[in-house]
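Ticket #4471: structure export looks truncated?
Reporter: QA, pipeline team
Priority: medium

Steps to reproduce: submit the single chain below to the structure queue and open the exported record.
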Amino acid sequence: MGKNYKFIIGIVFLPITIIFLFIKKIFTMISNKKINKYINSLDISNIDSLDGKELEDFLYYFFKNLKIKVSKTKVSRDYGADLIIELNKIRVVIQCKLYFKHSVGNSAIQEVSTAKEYYNADKGLVITNSYFTKSAIELSKSNNIALIDRNIFSELLSSTVAQKHLIINSLIS
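Actual output as written to the record:
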């Protein structure tokens, strides 16, 4: 009786499990297509309408959509990083800055530089919808921090997937 019972359970639950996994895969594919369509439809003016948390979420899905390994840091006490990506065995901490009326200054470079040490990263990256001050640009060079300003961000948003990879690789290499 025990063997028959296990056999019957196997016959009943195995197809149900396979069907469930198949349906889950279909929903994941549909979700990924929607995310891909959303990400590829935005331009820099759409980014300007986001808040800070939405920018972090957008960039998380942006990198994920590019098949780049990405993770979020804690919301508070993030030690100067919002995201961490790994690309070509290079670990990069990312600070996202959403500014409207002024340029990104030295403090963002200092924050991501600290985060680079804390998260044991090879490189730092600051992404903004604005621009960087001259002193922030100078400080970034001596701290191995890459910068994505409004112009580069806009170019990234309008690029093909291959072009996005080239731009990102050139920044973090």
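Status: closed, not a bug. The export was complete when the record was re-opened. Leaving a note from the reviewer for reference: The first strand starts at residue 69 and ends at 72.
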